[in-house]
């Protein structure tokens, strides 16, 4: 295949080796050049653009391969959505773009020039790999972990310290190089973490490196997971840092014990969120725009204040949805403590997650998904917990306490399940398959409820695991609910989760 892409390409590319050219598929019919360029802007300069509107595709050429790698890596976990439509980002098989002078490509080049004129001039060379971050108008808590999620999109966060100075919540954050720091500053300076509040003010620090002594909720050195948690604020050897440091105003970790155990599985990786229906990518050149609460979920920002862990789930199928059904489905994204289907309104339920981050994960991934023919709506409940029925009061089994269930996926600190959270997809990941179970057995099982099995594949090196592709995302959701923990014999209970891969 040629290493140059041009406007007459008709092949569907499935690039999997790194290239500075990124292939974007499933774009809306009315996509604009500016919206496509905005997908690449947070990761570096976009040097060329090829639009294939009749095929709902586009190619973006980034200024370097590292920028393209960051872009593809990020969007493999945080699926971008443009005008309610998920789009797919992958490496192209082409190493560079070759564009012509057609009217279609002229518009693309004009959009690139417009961006360059308005955004390239301020790009002075960064003087430091350390950023000083001030969070103004702090109406909601912002934790060290939240800042790591936000800033890790622009490069590896090596070290971070949070503190309060002059009654302002601040942070010092170190990247491996000044280019990452510059990219983060250009994209995030002046942006809101939450709607109309928690505004980021970013400048380059005079420090060239951060010296962190403890890994806890006030400071982290991701290059030194062996550091102790300490019993107070970190010791800062640089005099200007020591003078600035005061106890942080936030002390919430995203999962219970995360700050203390400091598991390698929870370090600098961006959180996995699928945008709720209606969230769009930025439409202005070079801008991430002020992020609403829903928009924050798309960018990987935790949107729920600490302590908010009860979700209101509506538009359920009253004859088919049970507390156990919701426990299994929401349990893909966190540990479900309690479920209550409302007695007088059985299409509505309350789901209590273990913590606010897990509640955010469940809401971001499941809101708008179809369950038994109905698009589920999920919002935050005003209740802080789900109350069990009083003794002697029968509620027809509509309220269930799952806090001691053996099926929780995230109870074990550092569980590999944390790194295997993906949006609902038609392809399911199966595990814990005994040797006696063959492909036909599993295909028959998953089609027994009337669903379509499109494809199946055992893992080549481990036949305890397999991928199975259902006829639709909705069928996959229902299959996961029905067959997760299914007894396959030989003391093996099937484990089912959503996969990021396809067959």
Automatic annotation (TrEMBL):
CDD domains to which the protein is assigned, alphabetical: RRM2_PTBP1_like
Subcellular location: Nucleus
Record flagged with keyword Phosphoprotein: yes
Signal peptide limits: none
Main location: nucleus
Keyword Cell membrane: no
GO terms classed as biological process: mRNA processing; negative regulation of gene expression; negative regulation of mRNA metabolic process; RNA splicing
Keyword vocabulary terms for this entry: Acetylation, Activator, Isopeptide bond, mRNA processing, mRNA splicing, Nucleus, Phosphoprotein, Repeat, Repressor, RNA-binding, Ubl conjugation
Segments passing through the bilayer: none
Pfam family, one: RRM_8
GO CC terms in record: nucleus
InterPro entries per UniProt: HnRNP-L/PTB, HNRNPL_RRM, Nucleotide-bd_a/b_plait_sf, PTBP1-like_RRM2, RBD_domain_sf, RRM_dom
Molecular function (Gene Ontology), one example: RNA binding
Residue span, RRM domain: 131-207, 309-383, 426-501
NCBIfam families xref list: hnRNP-L_PTB
Entry protein name: Polypyrimidine tract-binding protein 1
Natural source organism: Takifugu rubripes
């Amino acid at each position: 295949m040629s290493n140059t892409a041009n406007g007459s390409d008709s092949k569907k590319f499935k690039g999997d080796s790194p290239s500075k050219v990124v292939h974007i598929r499933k774009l809306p019919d009315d996509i604009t050049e500016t919206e496509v360029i905005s997908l690449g802007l947070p990761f570096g300069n976009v040097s060329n653009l090829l639009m294939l509107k009749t095929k709902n595709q586009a190619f973006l050429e980034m200024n370097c391969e590292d920028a393209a790698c960051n872009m593809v890596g990020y969007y493999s976990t945080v699926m971008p959505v443009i005008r309610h439509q998920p789009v797919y980002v992958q490496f192209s098989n082409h190493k560079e773009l070759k564009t012509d002078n057609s009217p279609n490509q002229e518009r693309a080049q004009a959009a690139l020039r417009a961006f360059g004129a308005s955004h390239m001039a301020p790009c002075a060379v960064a003087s430091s790999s350390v950023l000083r971050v001030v969070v103004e108008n702090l109406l909601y808590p912002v934790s060290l972990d939240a800042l790591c999620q936000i800033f890790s999109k622009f490069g590896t966060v090596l070290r971070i310290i949070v503190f309060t100075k002059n009654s302002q919540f601040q942070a010092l954050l170190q990247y491996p190089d000044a280019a990452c720091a510059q990219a983060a500053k250009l994209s995030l300076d002046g942006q809101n973490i939450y709607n109309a509040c928690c505004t980021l003010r970013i400048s380059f620090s005079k420090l060239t490196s951060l010296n962190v002594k403890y890994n806890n909720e006030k400071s982290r050195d991701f290059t030194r997971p062996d550091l102790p948690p300490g019993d107070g604020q970190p010791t800062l050897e640089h005099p200007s840092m020591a003078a600035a440091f005061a106890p942080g105003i936030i002390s919430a970790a995203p999962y219970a014990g995360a700050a203390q155990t400091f598991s390698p599985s929870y370090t600098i990786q961006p959180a996995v969120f699928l945008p709720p229906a209606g969230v769009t990518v930025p439409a202005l050149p070079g801008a991430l725009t002020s992020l609403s609460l829903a928009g924050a979920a798309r960018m990987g920002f935790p949107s729920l204040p600490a302590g908010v862990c009860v979700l209101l789930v509506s538009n359920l199928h009253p004859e088919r949805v049970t507390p156990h059904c919701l426990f299994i489905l929401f349990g893909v994204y966190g540990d479900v403590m309690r479920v209550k289907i409302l007695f007088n309104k059985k299409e509505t339920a309350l789901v209590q997650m273990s913590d606010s981050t897990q509640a955010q994960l469940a809401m971001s991934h499941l809101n708008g998904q179809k369950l038994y023919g109905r698009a589920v709506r999920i919002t935050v409940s005003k209740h802080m917990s789900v109350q069990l029925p009083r003794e002697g009061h029968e509620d027809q089994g509509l309220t269930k306490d799952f806090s001691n269930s053996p099926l929780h996926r995230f109870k074990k600190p550092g569980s590999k399940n944390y790194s295997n959270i993906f949006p609902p997809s038609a392809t399911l990941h199966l595990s814990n398959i005994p040797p006696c179970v063959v492909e036909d057995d599993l295909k028959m099982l998953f089609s027994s409820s009337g669903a379509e099995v499109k494809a199946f594949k055992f893992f080549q090196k481990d036949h305890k695991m397999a991928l199975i592709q259902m006829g639709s995302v909705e069928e996959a959701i229902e299959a996961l609910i029905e067959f997760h923990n299914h007894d396959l014999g030989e003391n093996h209970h099937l484990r089912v989760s959503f996969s990021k891969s396809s067959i």
